[in-house]
Amino acid sequence: MAKEKANTKSIKRNYLYNMIYQVLILILPLVTTPYLSRVLGAEGIGIYGYTYAIVTYFILFGSLGVSLYGQREIAYAQDNPEKRMSTFVELILFRLITIAIAIIPYTLFFIYGKNNYQFCYRILLIEIIAAAFDISWFFQGMEEFKKTVTRNVFVRVCSVTCVFLFVKTKEDLSKFILIYSLGDLIGNISLWLYLPKYFRGIKIKNIGIRKHFIPVMMLFIPQIANQVYKILDTTMIGRIIPDKAETGYYEQAQKVIRLLLTIVTSLGVVMIPRMANTFANNDKKKIQQYLKLSFRFVFFLSFPIMMGISAVAHYFVPIFFGSGYDKVVVLIRIICPILLLMGIGNVLGTQYLIPTKRQKEYTISVIVGIVVNFILNIILIMRYASIGASIATVISELVVIFVQYLFVREDISIKDILRIAWKYFVAAVIMLFVCSLIGYMNNYTILAIRLVELAEKTRYSDRLFLNMFNLGVTMFTGGATYFASLIVLKDEFVFRFLDRISNKIMNRKNSQGVEDKDLNKEG
Question: Residue 114: phi, psi to the nearest 5?
Answer without folding.
Answer: -80, 120
